[in-house]
Amino acid sequence: MTTTTGIRTDLYVEVQQYYARQMRLLDSRDLAAYADTFTEDAVFAHSADREPARTRAGILQDLVEFHRRFETDPMRRRHHFTMLDVVFCDGDEIHTVFYALVVITRPGARSEIRASCVVTDVLVRENGELRNKSRIVEIDT
Amino acid sequence: MTTTTGIRTDLYVEVQQYYARQMRLLDSRDLAAYADTFTEDAVFAHSADREPARTRAGILQDLVEFHRRFETDPMRRRHHFTMLDVVFCDGDEIHTVFYALVVITRPGARSEIRASCVVTDVLVRENGELRNKSRIVEIDT
Amino acid sequence: MTTTTGIRTDLYVEVQQYYARQMRLLDSRDLAAYADTFTEDAVFAHSADREPARTRAGILQDLVEFHRRFETDPMRRRHHFTMLDVVFCDGDEIHTVFYALVVITRPGARSEIRASCVVTDVLVRENGELRNKSRIVEIDT
Asked: C6: how many CB neighbours lie within 10 A of its CB?
């Protein structure tokens, strides 16, 4: 087991807080604001059956396309991130791994787990703010 | 995205710990102890079909009434709070937003998600202890 | 409600990070590495229908036996720990309580909650690293 020494407490909490805000943007379907949490040159791979989206503009376009499937499916979606591991920092890059549960609720139906995932992020800081340089989502199948 | 600057690490962790203890009280049906985590003048809105409960005494009475429905339904209930955002502090008030999953287990049945919620809290400190001045629960439907 | 005063922020975050790494080991079926997160004289009680496993070697043997049932059941398992409470520190021992959701995914099927649990740990530090001296898992039934 890798030593936990050297992972800064402040950073760990800042990442938790960043994820809470970032994912509320996506869950409220504010796709432009969610895309804005990625760097200009970011990579976002979120589905095994889609090519990774590249660049912030490309990520936004991909999000808009992907979310068309929800237009006729009025589900409420919540992303729960747990088990955060700030694995290491390499220069300006913060490498994290965590679990994600995607819980959906459709009108008149019980909430259910739509996906169980492992997410690998690389974060960087721009003007003091954290942003995703990459996000790789592996969905359990 | 609002800057994360200025959210104190110590406070974020203290709120996490507070929620863990507070919700274990409710999940163990210690309604009086749970009500005691609210201030004397608190407001607690937890169901769309019920008026918000007001004052600590009123919250306890509401809890007792609400939990009568569980007397004939021996379910075990667990509140999982995730994605904590300590949004801002305004004077003595600490404003938070987070997700809640309510997971229930009935004898002989699989555990299931009973509710997916967004919770908005205002916390204050009394004699050094955090307490809820208000809690607004919005349940996904 | 017990006072939160005196729970050190650094320790709380270190425990969160420790659990993230520890449980990724179990979820990836690296049973030897998971057993190695326990002390030589540790106790691990994880199922009501099994005697607690004792000593690190005994825990590993128990894990191997227990996981045989999964050999013909290709499920992906994820342990989500939430609501961490670092209850108190007693000398070198760190006492924690938290909730655990075990989410499984079988090929071609929806993810589901396999178990909802309350976990009580005693952690100690060996060569600077956290380890479990005991873990008692109570599964909601």
From this structure: 8
Contacts of A82 in chain C (CB under 8 A): 80-82
Residues spanned by the domain of A15: 4-139
Q: Residue A121 is which amino acid? A: D
Supply the CATH number for residue C79's domain. 3.10.450.50
| Residue C90 · residue C100 · CB < 8 Å | no
pLDDT in tens, A59-75: 999 999 999 988 888 89
Q: Is B15 left (phi over 0), alpha (psi -120 to 50) or beta?
A: alpha
Q: Where residue C70 falls among pLDDT bands split at 50, 70, 90? A: confident
Backbone angles phi, psi at A117, to 5 degrees: -135, 155
What total of structural domains would you count in chain A?
1
| Complex prediction ipTM | 0.93
B48-67 pLDDT per residue, tens: 888 999 999 999 999 999 99
CA distances for B59 relative to A17, B39, B67, C26, C130, angstroms:
30, 10, 12, 42, 41
Which of C10, C99, C118 is the best substitution to test chain B (most B C-beta atoms within 10 A)? C99
